[in-house]
Amino acid sequence: MSQEAELSHVRERIDAIDHQLMDLIAERAACARQVALIKSKAGDHQFYRPEREAQILRRIKAENPGPLDDEEMTRLFREIMSACLALEQPLAVAYLGPAGTFTQTAALKHFGHSVSTVPLGTIPEIFREVEAGSVHFGVVPVENSTEGVVSHTLDTFMTSPLFICGEVCVRIHHHLLSLESSLASIHSVYSHQQSLAQCRGWLDQNLPHAERVPVASNAEAARMVAERPGTAAVASDAAAEIYGLGLVATRIEDEPDNTTRFLIIGRADAPISGHDKTSLLLACRNEAGGLHAMLTPLADHKISMTRIESRPSRRGVWDYVFFVDIIGHRENPAVAAALDHLRRETLFLKVLGSYPEAVL
Amino acid sequence: MSQEAELSHVRERIDAIDHQLMDLIAERAACARQVALIKSKAGDHQFYRPEREAQILRRIKAENPGPLDDEEMTRLFREIMSACLALEQPLAVAYLGPAGTFTQTAALKHFGHSVSTVPLGTIPEIFREVEAGSVHFGVVPVENSTEGVVSHTLDTFMTSPLFICGEVCVRIHHHLLSLESSLASIHSVYSHQQSLAQCRGWLDQNLPHAERVPVASNAEAARMVAERPGTAAVASDAAAEIYGLGLVATRIEDEPDNTTRFLIIGRADAPISGHDKTSLLLACRNEAGGLHAMLTPLADHKISMTRIESRPSRRGVWDYVFFVDIIGHRENPAVAAALDHLRRETLFLKVLGSYPEAVL
């Protein structure tokens, strides 16, 4: 066959595939409409089902035959589900802005592009808007991330009636930004402590003699560097643009799978999806062995802990509170038993929510 | 059937659809790989085909059975094509930043989310990076848009060897941003002239006594308003976030289909897609009737003009140059004949490119 004949043969097949794809997507949207109708009749107007979406994405990931990688394939299904849902219930999602931050990326990765997203300036504002019902969900970074989050998300949970109903992980890339065009001219590197740490290997190798200066946020580092010849910042490409800096080197993070975790907050948590996490807020007696005693119920019930972080409580009663993530849903019998037990061992226990583990 | 039985029936159908969708998407990606292989063998390494993508999207739009609207359905296909192409040829696209602007929206709408996008600060920089080959394409606003573009895109074409290889239209929403929470407290409204004009009806109705102050850009308006109680800006929600302003009213544009046009620039223009435009740069004799004489060949060959704009030439030789968009591809016989004719009537004619009309 000639090249042209070969090409047109394959293209005809693509056209046929596209036709089938369109019909299937249309039928899927019609099914989503049917689901909404059945639920509405029963008085249920909550059409977004995080646990069902997680199950679908997990299956897609498990059965993906290639050649597209899992990330791309699940992304396409996220978008298809997003479009089908928007037809029945257009979602509004607030995130920690401004636009162009990793938190926006997280919001769109989790909800797809058919939702309307609202950038807000602070984490408490996001909590307020979700509480007030003016948006359906909020997306917030878990940690004092490299984007210079001032208010700690977990602190806000201490006084909020909201729940965690999802988590999402985003791959983070760091770049070296400067007014200089060569590494030889750079004597100091500014960034958030965490970002400097994430690029230590690269910095040791490529800028061994440059001073490393930790500052409040990566954006702040970029702003400072824009006024200081001979310096560089570790930050995102968005910051390069905003502050008029060049990219001296790209993707300098040591760990290529450098990801950051974000939480989805809502007015309810999620039903069981089969692979879930539960986040807890605990306070224990301020005495030797208090933390150990507190964690015994988890060990006894063979519950895995994926994360623990202590925070000053900001209330007079306890010195410290702990944020703990465990594997399993709070309605799972072993988890429920462990939580009952834990409740007796702690001064204070609040379940912040059970939700599907991030699929990718 | 009980509600639960009904639901699980529909959900089983959705699961079956998803399985078929996944297999078809995978097969489509495999076909794209085959196309790339056939082309590579023939020494052709240009896998992105704007005219073919436009044809596919046009067919999708024409045959979309609903219930998803055309915009959503074509968006999903854009993403599927984007993922398939990225497998063979990951595209880099520069756009007029920063992140969060309408130009970024345009870039992602046109290329899908599987490309890597690079925000740059000025239009000449985007031209330079495309010329240098460090990115495959650039996305630039056509007009001195509401985002405060300083350098006029069309001026840059006068001295550039690049071509226009696509256009994309983006729906633009304007909001009223202020430190105030009620309309009654607002005595002045700042914005770019064009945005004030686009919201005139709403402003007449809701703020009849407020002074309207045209400024350089919508972002600049938001910045000024953040320092001036009693004022408001017409700008995007991204600007509200960046400058810490509240949204007093949303989507206040008079025309709900308020769209702005962006151009895709590359090192070559696009082959015939069947529904194409051609952009021209012309200079005519500076005499009475010069413009009329210049346009006669178009009329004679029944070529429709969709846009004409005069610009100071910045070269001593001519007083004015004209940017003209016509319907049809330069290889279309009638267009080719008109261009031949036109070339004889003008002092200077440059074809900036033929490219598929924006599908949506």
What does this entry look like structurally?
- The structure is a homodimer of 360-residue chains.
- With 360 residues, chain A is α/β, with parallel strands linked by helices.
- Chain A folds into four domains: 3-86, Chorismate Mutase Domain, subunit A (Up-down Bundle), CATH 1.20.59.10; 91-172 and 258-266, D-Maltodextrin-Binding Protein, domain 2 (3-Layer(aba) Sandwich); 175-249, Periplasmic binding protein-like II (D-Maltodextrin-Binding Protein, domain 2, 3-Layer(aba) Sandwich), CATH 3.40.190.10; 276-356, ACT domain (Alpha-Beta Plaits, 2-Layer Sandwich), CATH 3.30.70.260.
- Chain A is built from twelve helices and 14 strands.
- Chain A has a five-stranded mixed beta sheet with strand order 2-1-3-10-4, with helices on both faces. A five-stranded mixed beta sheet of chain A has the order 7-6-8-5-9. In chain A, strands 12-13-11-14 form a four-stranded antiparallel beta sheet.
- In chain A, β12 and β13 (320-327) form a beta hairpin.
- In chain A, α2 (50-63) runs antiparallel to α3 (70-88) and α11 packs antiparallel against α12.
- Chain A starts with a helix and ends with a strand.
- At the A-B interface, α1, α2, α3, β2 and α10 of A face α1, α2, α3, β2 and α10 of B.
- Chains A, B: It comes from Thioalkalicoccus limnaeus.
- Chains A, B: Residues 1-92 form the Chorismate mutase domain.
- Chains A, B: Pathway: Metabolic intermediate biosynthesis; prephenate biosynthesis; prephenate from chorismate: step 1/1; Amino-acid biosynthesis; L-phenylalanine biosynthesis; phenylpyruvate from prephenate: step 1/1.
- Chains A, B: Keywords: Amino-acid biosynthesis, Aromatic amino acid biosynthesis, Cytoplasm, Isomerase, Lyase, Multifunctional enzyme, Phenylalanine biosynthesis.
- Chains A, B: Catalyzes the Claisen rearrangement of chorismate to prephenate and the decarboxylation/dehydration of prephenate to phenylpyruvate.
